[in-house]
# Entry
Amino acid sequence: MLTRELTYKKAFEIKNNALKQKIARRDMLLNAAYSTNPRLLEIDRELSSIGAQLAITALSGNSEKVAVLKAKSVAVSKEKSAILKKEMVPEIEYDCPLCKDSGYLGGKICDCVKKLAAQVILDDLKKQMPLDDCTFESFNLNYYSKDGENPRKRMTYILKLCKEYVDSFNPENAQNLLFMGSPGLGKTHLTMAIVSGVVEKGYMPFYGPAETLFSLASSERFSGENKGGYNAMLDCDLLVIDDLGTEYVNEFSRSVLYNLINSRLLSKKPTIINTNLTMKEIADRYGERIVSRLIGGYNANKFIGNDVRQQKSLEENRGI
# Structure
């Protein structure tokens, strides 16, 4: 998973490279036009001379002469534009007319770069997971029965919760979510849908299976690799820890998990955790301190029903 710094660096590289290509293409056409039409050089000399005269005249306070020189400059510039148009030399068409593809507007990063950064994150995430297949629209409630505990009712509520989570997402006040339940009930599916929605709103999540995240922290701590990865987990707009409990558990991983949960609670940064474990199993693996913080700081939701993956596999085998 890319850090915020790497994401924006890549976004700016993409934007700058695209702009360089546009400039290079126009320069090529411009050079060809100058080689075939000597009047263009004459116009450039005239505009340079007019500019120098304007600077001197403006200091003298002769407003009438200034107006004449400005009008002359406009007329000569129009002539140049007409020649370039005839020579089929177009003006640069910027992807973002607001910042003219510089990436900055009013001293701040332009929204066009933020959108590009979001796409960079999505492309990176798609290398790790089937993001396009995990949307709110593709979450099929028909796989959840209305019998017994009425899983469909429960999952309808959770689906609505996830949609509203994205709609109102703000890293400054979004709640923490804990998704629990047996494998194959859609925990990862809905989490991916949330991640996609959050990215599309321009925010920076950090997603990964627990095993991957703890491995990143370990390699940074003990071998100096993946520098900045752990801080990215602490500081991102939304941290997502998927499949908690499937990783190898030791004192270091317990420490990392506790610090991530506790630090983000203290800084009021939202986190989503998915796990097949029960609260008792979490306590047995990671300790009561972590359970205490989950109970006190997370909106816990239990997924119920029959394994959806198994149901889909049976349908495929039957040719449904």
